[in-house]
Design brief:
This protein is an all-alpha fold. It is 91% helix and 0% strand. The radius of gyration is 14 Å and the shape is elongated. The relative contact order is 0.10.
Length: 34
Amino acid sequence: GDLWDAQWRRWVGSHRGIWKREAYVVAAVRLVCQ
């Protein structure tokens, strides 16, 4: 529902920096493994 979605968006926003860093690591690993 809307309440759950709001909590999810807030949690994602608070962890966005971590997710970006992990995304860069995953991209680097994929390039090395190609």
